[in-house]
């Protein structure tokens, strides 16, 4: 009966508008945030993330991603590729996305940059595991019950997204528009589109003053992320403290009186950041109306940067990397 219950939940999920998965450490997954971040480290970067949401719940929700990007200084351009997959429940209802990203870096005045970006992607939505239907279950009286089966186990489509980023040495502000082609993800004959997702993000970095002989590595960075997709909206507000190599962060997620009277979650982060390597762990503490029903969410991110220039030039973006 537990399997049957999870299958019913999967079919309920099919009847509502689709939504994108999310990452708490969204700056550790920059290409997922927007194509303007392709090539943002002035060299090459490989990044991977793993998110296990509500681990103790019967129907698990897991998101995995991996990306690679590189900055071509001669052409002021960044190129990146991104792959991610999210699955939920015993039947692993979810989506898979493969994308190609491009960004171009314009320098205006002496310290300001404008970075537009464009993405093209291929996506699949459907069941990535074994699917159990009600008519496969024999009840006590020997009869079976019927259920409408999908026309296909996978829906496939293409998509386009765009973004723009404005930044200086300590400040950045950007926005992304995903699913501009509103791809059809229905597994039945009726249409079920993936709504356009709008993201707005930004922040400012404060650095403690050092001296010429001993520059300071200690920074405090305040950031935000607002997302809207269909009828759902979400606001993340947070702060990062960094003192080489340690990073600590805390976030509040939610819009009181919209998500719940308390919000959605408190996110706590600890990480190690060096010039070439980052690793971070975060825990989402649930504070929404689901408090007491589900527990928190674990997320791990890893990034490796190579082929970096000896000195920062004009491609790098100042935002955090977690």
Please provide a written account of the structure.
This protein is mainly beta and 322 residues long. The protein has one domain (2-306): monomeric porin ompg (Porin). The chain is built from two helices and 15 strands. Strands 1-2-3-4-6-7-8-9-10-11-12-13-14-15 form a 14-stranded antiparallel beta barrel. The two termini are 40 Å apart.
Keywords, separated by commas or semicolons:
disordered N terminus; 5% helix; 322 residues; Porin; mainly beta
Number of helices: 2
Q: What is the N-to-C succession of helices and strands?
A: HHEEEEEEEEEEEEEEE
Span between termini: 40 Å
Q: What share of residues are in beta strands? A: over 45%
- What is the CATH superfamily classification? monomeric porin ompg
Poorly predicted tracts of residues: 1-17
What is the global morphology? Answer: globular
Identify the CATH class: Mainly Beta
Question: What is shown here, in short?
Answer:
The protein has a 14-stranded antiparallel β-barrel.
Topology (elements, then pairings):
Elements lengths: L1 H13 L15 H4 L10 E10 L7 E12 L4 E12 L4 E12 L1 E3 L3 E16 L26 E14 L3 E8 L18 E11 L11 E11 L2 E12 L2 E8 L11 E9 L3 E10 L10 E10 L16
């Amino acid at each position: 009966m537990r399997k049957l219950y999870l299958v019913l939940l999967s079919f309920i999920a099919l009847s509502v508008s689709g939504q994108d998965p999310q990452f708490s450490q969204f700056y550790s997954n920059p290409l997922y945030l927007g194509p303007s971040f392709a090539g943002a480290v002035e060299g090459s970067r490989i990044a991977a993330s793993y998110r296990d949401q509500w681990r103790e719940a019967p129907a698990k929700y897991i998101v995995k991603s991996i990306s690679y990007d590189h900055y071509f200084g001669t052409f002021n351009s960044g190129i990146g590729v991104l792959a991610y997959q999210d699955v939920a429940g015993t039947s692993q209802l979810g989506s898979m996305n493969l994308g190609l990203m491009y960004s171009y870096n314009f320098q205006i005045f002496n310290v300001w940059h404008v970075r537009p970006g464009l993405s093209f992607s291929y996506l699949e939505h459907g069941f990535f595991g074994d699917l159990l239907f009600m008519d496969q279950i024999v009840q006590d009286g020997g009869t079976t019950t019927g259920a409408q089966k999908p026309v296909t186990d996978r829906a496939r489509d293409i998509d386009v997204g765009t973004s723009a980023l404005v930044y200086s040495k300590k400040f950045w502000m950007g926005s992304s528009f995903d699913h501009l082609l509103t791809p059809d993800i229905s597994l039945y004959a009726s249409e079920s589109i993936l709504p356009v997702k709008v993201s707005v993000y930004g922040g400012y970095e404060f650095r403690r003053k050092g001296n010429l002989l001993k520059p300071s590595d200690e920074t405090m960075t305040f950031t935000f992320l607002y997302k809207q997709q269909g009828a759902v909206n979400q606001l993340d507000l947070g702060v990062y403290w960094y003192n080489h190599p340690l990073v600590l962060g805390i976030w509040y997620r939610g819009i009181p009186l919209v998500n719940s009277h308390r919000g959605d979650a408190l996110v706590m982060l600890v990480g190690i950041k060096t010039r070439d390597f980052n690793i971070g762990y975060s825990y989402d503490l649930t504070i929404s109306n689901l408090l007491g029903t589900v527990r928190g969410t674990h997320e791990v991110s890893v990034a490796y940067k190579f082929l970096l220039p000896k000195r920062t030039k004009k491609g790098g973006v100042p935002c955090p990397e977690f």
